[in-house]
Write a structure and sequence with these properties.
The protein is α/β, with parallel strands linked by helices and 260 residues long. Helix content is 30%, strand content 25%. The strands form two sheets. Strands 6, 7, 8, 9, 10, 11, 12 and 13 form an eight-stranded parallel sheet that branches. It has a five-stranded mixed sheet with strand order 1-3-4-5-2. It is elongated, with a radius of gyration of 21 Å. The structure holds S-adenosylmethionine. The site of S-adenosylmethionine has 18 residues, from helix 7.
Length: 260
């Protein structure tokens, strides 16, 4: 398995640099890599590069960039606005939504939000690990938490909100998003808004559903857990309005092996 790592340095063929602490520890102590071993790097700006380990010493791991594998690309501009859940559920949500190509996480405190504590640094670390594994070339932004009122007050009305509404009048999400796809006035900026374990307050759903930039959608007859609902909505979004039609990069072949 060729390690794929997010780095912050500028990347171009011939660049040589000392790996940051996280990467150096992973390469030296976890993966026990040695000079000459291959790596894959991305930095969310310059694209994805092949690289090799140039030197491993007590103090550092030196990396040399060899050539460009894939030019930089982006993900659809879709934010996941979610009410913070219990720790494990948030970690799971961030990992899976990163795999599903979310562009940003926007924590929102609603009336029934259970946990108000969020460790944004841990969420960022989870997102980096998931982005490395899922072979995306970008990292989702982790935005500072807002109350629902602050979110709506400061919302850019050209970014349409897809509201996962467990009650009240809705269209089934597939029908709603297919309709939005036909509407040429749509910008390409989106938000998916999901409630907490305790659900939205009825007053919140009523207020949100009246906003011109909000489309309330249903996710079927069952009440989904908040993380399930967010991921289900994101998956449907990507298949109808996002990049669901695209294909993953060619599988990483070990050096010297040609495709069958
Ligand atoms: N009040 C219920 C409860 O206590 O279980 C429902 C809350 S549900 C766990 C959390 C969120 O997931 C909801 O606020 C809503 O955003 C979304 N959700 C769950 N099931 C849904 C469905 N069938 N249709 C639309 N949204 C749903």
């Amino acid at each position: 398995m060729i390690p794929r790592l997010y780095v912050t340095v500028d990347l171009k063929p011939g660049t040589r640099f000392a790996a940051e602490e996280r990467a150096a520890h992973y390469l030296k102590n976890v993966m026990r890599r040695t000079p000459g071993d291959p790596l894959i790097l991305f930095n969310t700006r310059d694209g994805e590069f092949n690289a090799t380990i140039a030197d491993v010493s007590k103090k550092s791991v030196e990396i040399e960039v060899t050539d460009l594998r894939r030019p930089q690309s982006s993900v659809p501009d879709v934010w996941l606005c979610f009410a913070p859940l219990k720790k494990d559920a948030v970690d799971f949500l961030v990992e899976k939504a990163t795999e599903l190509g979310v562009a940003a996480f926007q924590p929102v405190f609603t009336k029934h939000t259970a946990s108000t504590r969020l460790n944004l640094e841990r969420l960022e670390a989870n997102a980096i690990e998931a982005a490395e594994q899922t072979e995306r070339l970008t990292l989702p932004q982790i935005r500072a938490p807002l109350s629902l009122a602050e979110l709506i007050q400061g919302w850019d009305p050209t970014r349409r909100i897809i509201l996962c509404a467990e009650a009240g009048p809705v269209l089934p999400i597939g029908e709603a998003l297919s309709g939005l796809k036909q509407d040429v006035r749509q910008t390409n900026a989106w938000g998916i808004l999901c409630g907490p374990e305790g659900g939205f307050a009825r007053s919140e759903l009523d207020l949100l559903s009246k906003l011109p930039f909000v489309t309330p959608v249903g996710l079927g007859p069952r009440i989904l857990r908040a993380d399930t609902a967010a991921l289900a909505a994101l998956a449907v979004f990507q298949s109808i309005l996002g990049d669901g039609a695209e294909r993953p990069p060619a599988p990483l072949l070990p050096i010297g092996q040609s495709p069958a």
